Amino acid sequence: MTNHIVLFEPLMPANTGNIARTCAGTDTVLDLIEPLGFSVDDKHLKRAGLDYWNKVNINYHHNLPDFIKGIKPDSKLFLVSKFAEQDYTQPDYSEMIKGDFYFLFGKETTGLPEMFMRNNAEKAIRIPQDDSHIRALNLSNTCAIVIYEVLRQQQFNGLERTHTYEYDKLK
């Protein structure tokens, strides 16, 4: 079982770079659905991802149907949208499945295509927010919130400490 963060037509290189850094730190696959609103050579993208790009497993998909076609049969797809009825903490992500978990996030400006959302409403999850103050949470923050809930339910499997620090030296 592998977790995937999937970005539908991301526009902002800094968001994607930050998300890539989160993926590197959580051993999460990053799937990017084209077209991208930037070049993968963009300096802002690289700066946001720092020197972690070689630690990120990235898959590129030509479009949304291409991505959907590539999902393994035993996998579970979740659509992250502020319009969903179900909160992101409600599904059981600890459930052992043969496939992978995919978390599909929409474009920063318009989200996921409306007809796609209507046809897959039962797969949608949301992070509660006060819509009277903001249109949406930042995409990179949203990805981090969701993936850390998933990992919490999975007992942070594979994220054990690899380094120990001698804090006594700091005193």
TrEMBL record:
<dbReference type="GO" id="GO:0008757">
    <property type="term" value="F:S-adenosylmethionine-dependent methyltransferase activity"/>
</dbReference>
<dbReference type="InterPro" id="IPR016914">
    <property type="entry name" value="TrmL"/>
</dbReference>
<dbReference type="InterPro" id="IPR001537">
    <property type="entry name" value="SpoU_MeTrfase"/>
</dbReference>
<dbReference type="GO" id="GO:0042802">
    <property type="term" value="F:identical protein binding"/>
</dbReference>
<dbReference type="GO" id="GO:0008175">
    <property type="term" value="F:tRNA methyltransferase activity"/>
</dbReference>
<dbReference type="Pfam" id="PF00588">
    <property type="entry name" value="SpoU_methylase"/>
</dbReference>
<feature type="binding site">
    <location>
        <position position="127"/>
    </location>
    <ligand>
        <name>S-adenosyl-L-methionine</name>
    </ligand>
</feature>
<dbReference type="GO" id="GO:0002130">
    <property type="term" value="P:wobble position ribose methylation"/>
</dbReference>
<comment type="similarity">
    <text>Belongs to the class IV-like SAM-binding methyltransferase superfamily. RNA methyltransferase TrmH family. TrmL subfamily.</text>
</comment>
<dbReference type="GO" id="GO:0005737">
    <property type="term" value="C:cytoplasm"/>
</dbReference>
<keyword id="KW-0949">S-adenosyl-L-methionine</keyword>
<protein>
    <recommendedName>
        <fullName>Putative tRNA (cytidine(34)-2'-O)-methyltransferase</fullName>
        <ecNumber>2.1.1.207</ecNumber>
    </recommendedName>
</protein>
<comment type="function">
    <text>Could methylate the ribose at the nucleotide 34 wobble position in tRNA.</text>
</comment>
<keyword id="KW-0808">Transferase</keyword>
<feature type="binding site">
    <location>
        <position position="106"/>
    </location>
    <ligand>
        <name>S-adenosyl-L-methionine</name>
    </ligand>
</feature>
<dbReference type="GO" id="GO:0003723">
    <property type="term" value="F:RNA binding"/>
</dbReference>
<keyword id="KW-0819">tRNA processing</keyword>
<keyword id="KW-0489">Methyltransferase</keyword>
<dbReference type="InterPro" id="IPR029026">
    <property type="entry name" value="tRNA_m1G_MTases_N"/>
</dbReference>
<feature type="binding site">
    <location>
        <position position="80"/>
    </location>
    <ligand>
        <name>S-adenosyl-L-methionine</name>
    </ligand>
</feature>
<dbReference type="InterPro" id="IPR029028">
    <property type="entry name" value="Alpha/beta_knot_MTases"/>
</dbReference>
<keyword id="KW-0963">Cytoplasm</keyword>
<feature type="domain" description="tRNA/rRNA methyltransferase SpoU type">
    <location>
        <begin position="4"/>
        <end position="148"/>
    </location>
</feature>
